[in-house]
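Thread: quick sanity check before group meeting

JM: Hey all, I'm pulling together slides for Thursday and realized we never actually wrote out the predicted structure for the chain we discussed last week. Dropping the sequence here so it's in one place. If anyone has concerns about the input, flag it before I start.
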Amino acid sequence: MSVPQPTVTPAPPFLMRPVVVLTVAMAGLGLLAAGILSLMMAKTRTPDVPAETHAEPTSYFDAPFFMLTERSGADVTTADLDGKVWVAGFVFTRCTQGCPAVTGTMAKLQADLKLADRDDVRLVSFTVDPERDDLTALKKYAKTYGADETKWLFLTGKEKLVRPLLKRGFKIVADKRPDPKPGDEFDHSSKLYLVDKQGRVRSTFDGMKGEHDLTGERFVAEQKRLREMIEKLLKE
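JM (edit): ok, ran it. Output follows.
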């Protein structure tokens, strides 16, 4: 005698739908959790240091007009630099932070270009602390770096003239710090500005080695590029 098998009755469709919905919902939550985890890992991962770029500006701007006093006591205006390629730097004589490195870079540039033997290039250092950088301070500072008396200019003037010249004219940061330490009274740019014979700012260059440039290779390449571009602009 055969034993009758129990009959399995399929669940009605309306009972199966919650199971399907629940399965889909759990899968969606899994994907969401994975996405959140990936985002958290990306935020906690140490960011890559971007490679330095050396692209020249796509548009130039005119170097600002100025009428300032050189360490020698002579008045110097933008017109005195017409027809010459010049490199501008921004420092102050009491600085113990980046300024010595920036001025040292310009001193090396003076030597590399053999500036004393040519009349088509100038170096120009603008003080960001005109209230304290008088002619005596600038003379002493320039002498420390062996600056040529006629080819490497150190300029100062009245505060009301210098500050707008730097910030609006050259478009650099040049601000007094609210609670400064001696030798670190100003937050200012360490860039060098390259100006062509027509008085246009053509490019900027690092005036000192960057904090991520551990070997200094990038900075050496940057200075080589600066010297090459100076020679290029002289031929224009």
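AS: nice. The CA atoms of residues 30 and 81 lie 68 Å apart. The chain has a mean pLDDT of 81.
JM: adding both to the slides.
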